[in-house]
Amino acid sequence: MLWLVAIGFFMQALDGTIVNTALPTMARSLGESPLRMQSVVVAYTLTMAMLIPASGWVADRFGTRRVYITAISLFVAGSAACALAQNLTQLVAARVLQGMGGAMLLPVGRLAVLRAYPRERFLKAMSFVAIPGLIGPLIGPTLGGWLVEYVSWHWIFLINLPVGLIGLVASRIYMPDGRMPAVTRFDTAGYLLLSFGMVAISLSLDGVSELGLRQAAVLVLLVFGMASLVAYWLHAARRPDPLFTPRLFDIQSVTVGLLGNLFARLGSSCMPFLIPLLLQVSMGYSPAQAGMMMLPVAIAGMASKSLATRWIGRAGYRKVLVTNTMLVGLAMASFALSAPEQPLWLRIIQLAAFGAVNSMQFTAMNSVSLKDLDGPLASSGNSLLSMVQMLAMSMGVAAAGAVLAAYTGYFTAVGQTQTLFAFRATFATMGLMTIASAWIFWQLAPDTPRAAPVEHPVDVG
C-alpha cells in the first residue's frame, strides 16, 4: 500500500511541475501567446484547492479504496484529455478534470496510511511515501523540456497513462476500504461559500490578463469573492461541525502561519511559472535547456531543508521567518537583473540561492502553522493548510500573469517591444510583494516555542 500511495504522490508532484517548461511550445501549437498561458496552471491548482476540503469527508463516506480508484481514474482521464486538446479552452477544461483527481490523491492516500499504521510507525511510513513527491519536482521540469523538444508536448500528459493504469490495478488489490461506519453531515453551504470565494478571487486576478474581462467585471468578481469568504467564516462560527472551525484562529501561531503561507506564497509560487518563460521567450533557451536550468532550484531546495531545523533551533521562528521571507523576496527580485549575456555560472548560483531560501521558507511556514495543534484541531488545521497552499499557488500564478501582461502592455506602448523588460519589472514587483509579507511573520510572539520543524507531506516544494 505504501508503494501505491507513493505512486499517487509522484504523479501529482510530477504533473505540478512538468507543465511549466512546456508552456511556450504548447502556446505555439495552440495558436496562443506564451505570456497568456497561466490559466493552464491556475485551472489545475485552483481545482485542487476547491476539492481538498471535501476529500476527507468523501473518503469517510465512500471508503478510501473507492475514492482512490476514482481519483486515479479522473487523473488519467484528465491527462488523456489534455493530450487530445485542440485549443486552450479544451486544455483548461481537461486540466480541471485532472485537478479533480489530483486533489483526492494526496489527502486520501495520506488518510489511508494514517489508518493502516499505528502512531509510532506513521511518521516513518509517511517519510517513505513522500520521497517520490520530492523527486517529482526534481525531474519534472527537465523531463518536460526533453519531451517537448525531442518528442511532443502531448507526452507530458501521456506518460501519466501507464503509471495511472498500474495504480488502478494495484488499488483494487492493496488499498483498504477504510469506510467509516458513521459519517457526520457534510457542510454543503459552507463548502459552496468557500469554493465560490476562492474561484471568484482567482478568476478576478486571471481575468486581468487572460480572460479579457473589463475592470468592472474584475472588480465585481473580487468583491463577490471576498464577501463569500467572509460569509463562510460567519457561517462556520455558528455551525457545530464546519469544514474548518474558526477556533483554529484562536491560536496565534496558526493564524500567522496560515496568513503568512498565503501571502508569502503569492510571490514565490509564481517562480516555477515565470523562470521557464523568461528563459525561453527572452533568453533564447530551448525547452530542454530551460528544464535543466530548474535543476539547481530543486537540488538546492532538497539540500537546504535540514538547515532550517538548525536555524530555527538557534534563532526561533519569528527571526527566521522575517529574515528568510526578505531573503526570498530579494532572491526573486534579483531576476530583474537577468540578461542574455549573464554568465551561466552566475545564473546557476542565482537559481540555487532562490531554491535554498525558498525551501527553508516552506519548512518554517508549515511548521509554525501546525506545531501548536493537537487533537481534532490537528486534522482541520492540516487540511486548511493544504488548501491555503494550493490556493496561493493558483493566485500567485494568476497575479504574476496579470502583472506580466500589464508591464508588457506598458513597454509596448512606449515603443519597447522586448519582453525582457516586462519580465524584469514583473520579477521586481513579485519580489517586493514577498518582502512585504514579512510583516505578517513579525506578528509572531518573540518567545514562540522552538521545536523541530514539521515536514508537511503535501508540500513538496
Automatic annotation (TrEMBL):
The keyword Transport applies. It is a multi-pass membrane protein. InterPro entries: EmrB-like, MFS, MFS_dom, MFS_trans_sf. Its main location: membrane. Residues 1-449 form the Major facilitator superfamily (MFS) profile domain. The chain crosses the membrane at residues 40-59, 66-86, 92-113, 125-147, 153-174, 186-205, 217-235, 256-278, 290-308, 320-338, 384-409, 421-442. It is found in: Cell membrane. Keywords: Cell membrane, Membrane, Transmembrane, Transmembrane helix, Transport. Signal peptide: none annotated. The keyword ATP-binding does not apply. NCBIfam families: efflux_EmrB, PRK10504.1. This is MFS transporter. It comes from Pseudorhodoferax aquiterrae.
